């Protein structure tokens, strides 16, 4: 299946441009905190003249009221403190509204300061697609499963999800940042899963360069979607979760799955001190084919 969505103009947003990208937007969607949301990190006084909405507002109505009938509406979405299921709902709303309007989306993500893993293990009580919109489908039922797994601090949750799906194959995405200790911790927390797959199935990705990651995801999906039913399991940093949602919009055969308890990982939605800010932008349009 070919998506009716056109996702183009992918660009990285680096530290010193994040504020400008937000201030030049028509509106901002966020979840406010004390430290980790982008507005608090940059300084609230900078945003007095721009419309700011909470992720739990009526976003459909907000977009109806603010979207331009001529030209693209620029929306900054600060994903830093938004929980994963709500973020999936937000992406699905944007995708549906893009059937009528054109959008330029700026995804903003604040990276929390390094914190070691808790060492705790949480059971996978619920493993399923994050929503109907991201449930994927296949023209050929019975195809083997390929899991594309983002790794994080969630000890054994990733391997449990891969086993639950009875995956025939898996590709592993390992986050890297300026904090070398984080990379080492992720490797250790996921040693069981990593030991099950060769190095050729492992990809390291830079948190500060998300566009390279989505091009990598696109290549993996395009090369394998005619052979496998592809399931994205985006554990770890939320920027990878956002990239997975966008990949599923571009490839509607692909599903994005949610695992209960994944918010216990130390990156999830905790309002902690920030070490860096980055993100990516893209345009999204829809056309009948």
Description:
It is a single chain. The chain has 289 residues and is an alpha/beta fold. The chain has two domains: 5-115 and 270-286, Cobalt-precorrin-4 Transmethylase, domain 1 (3-Layer(aba) Sandwich), CATH 3.40.1010; 127-264, Rossmann fold (3-Layer(aba) Sandwich). It is 30% helix and 28% strand. The chain contains nine helices and twelve strands. The protein has helices at residues 15-23, 38-42, 59-66, 84-97, 157-164, 180-189, 191-194, 210-224, 238-250, and strands spanning 5-13, 27-30, 51-54, 72-78, 102-112, 127-129, 145-150, 169-176, 202-206, 229-234, 255-259, 274-286. The strands form two sheets. Strands 1-12-5-4-2-3 form a six-stranded mixed beta sheet. Strand 10, helix 9 (238-250) and strand 11 (255-259) form a beta-alpha-beta unit. Helix 3 runs parallel beside helix 4, helix 4 packs parallel to helix 9 and helix 8 crosses helix 9. The mean pLDDT is 91. This is Transcription elongation factor GreB. GO terms for molecular function: translation elongation factor activity. Keywords: Elongation factor, Protein biosynthesis.
Topology:
Elements: E1 5-13, H1 15-23, E2 27-30, H2 38-42, E3 51-54, H3 59-66, E4 72-78, H4 84-97, E5 102-112, E6 127-129, E7 145-150, H5 157-164, E8 169-176, H6 180-189, H7 191-194, E9 202-206, H8 210-224, E10 229-234, H9 238-250, E11 255-259, E12 274-286
Parallel strand pairs: 2-3, 2-4, 4-5, 7-8, 7-10, 8-9, 10-11
Antiparallel strand pairs: 1-12, 5-12, 6-11
Helix pairs in contact: 3-4, 4-9, 8-9
């Amino acid at each position: 299946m070919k998506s009716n969505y056109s996702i183009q103009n992918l660009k990285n947003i680096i530290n010193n441009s994040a504020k400008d990208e937000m201030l030049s937007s028509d509106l901002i969607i966020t979840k406010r905190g004390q430290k980790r949301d982008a507005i608090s990190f940059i300084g609230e006084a900078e945003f007095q003249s721009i419309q700011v909405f909470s992720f739990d507002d009526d976003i459909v109505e907000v977009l109806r009221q603010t979207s331009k009938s001529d030209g693209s509406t620029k929306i900054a979405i600060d994903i830093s403190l938004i929980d994963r299921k709500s973020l999936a709902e937000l992406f699905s709303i944007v995708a549906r509204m893009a059937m009528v309007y054109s959008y330029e989306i700026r995804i903003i993500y604040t990276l929390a300061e390094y914190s070691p893993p808790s060492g705790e293990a949480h059971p996978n009580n619920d493993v399923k697609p994050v929503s109907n919109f991201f449930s994927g489908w296949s023209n050929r039922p019975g195809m083997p499963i390929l899991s594309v797994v983002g790794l994080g601090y969630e000890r054994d949750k990733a391997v449990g999800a891969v086993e639950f799906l009875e995956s025939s194959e898996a590709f592993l995405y390992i986050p890297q940042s300026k904090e070398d200790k984080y990379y080492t911790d992720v490797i250790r927390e996921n040693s069981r899963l990593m030991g099950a797959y060769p190095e050729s199935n492992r990809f390291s990705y830079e948190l500060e360069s998300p566009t390279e990651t989505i091009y990598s995801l696109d290549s993996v999906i395009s090369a394998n979607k005619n052979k496998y039913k592809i399931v994205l399991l985006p554990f770890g940093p939320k920027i990878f979760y956002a990239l997975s949602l966008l990949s599923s919009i571009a490839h509607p055969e692909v599903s994005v799955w949610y695992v209960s308890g994944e918010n216990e990982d130390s990156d999830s939605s905790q309002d902690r001190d920030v070490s860096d800010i980055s993100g990516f932008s893209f345009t999204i349009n829809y056309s009948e084919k």
